[in-house]
Amino acid sequence: MAKLILSSEILSNFEVVCVEQDSSLISIYLDESVKAEYKKNSNMESKRYCEKITFRDFPIRDKGVDLIVRKHK
Fold it and tell me: ∠ CA(47), CA(52), CA(57), 5° rounding?
């Protein structure tokens, strides 16, 4: 479902971790993807993510949509 909602630019830079839905809110969790050139470089290592940031997006079918994003440090 999230892949139908999100733009191709977001999907190329972030990975959908999970989607939670309740009666009034859809929460989509996104983690930044590791770039291909970083995966090939043995000197580069991702230790952790920054604090998550929540963006309120346009509602879908009368439900609020939150994008919860984590980027690499």
Answer: 140
